[in-house]
Amino acid sequence: xxxxxxxxxxxxxxxxxxxxxxxxxxxxxxxxxxxxxxxxxxxxxxxxxxxxxxxxxxxxxxx
Length: 63
Fold this sequence. Notes:
- The chain is mostly helical.
- It has one domain.
- It is 84% helix and 0% strand.
- It contains two helices and no strands.
- The protein has helices at 5-29, 35-62.
């Protein structure tokens, strides 16, 4: 297996940006009255980020 470190680094930068945006979203909305919706939205976005990472890793390993 030959890992493509440039590709991995790029994927990690994308994930870092997505996590930073999610943290900002949570921080700016944590005091809202509809915090249940914010919690669901946060978990959903975190699941999307995790899925993206796993799919990218699988694709990298297959190449």
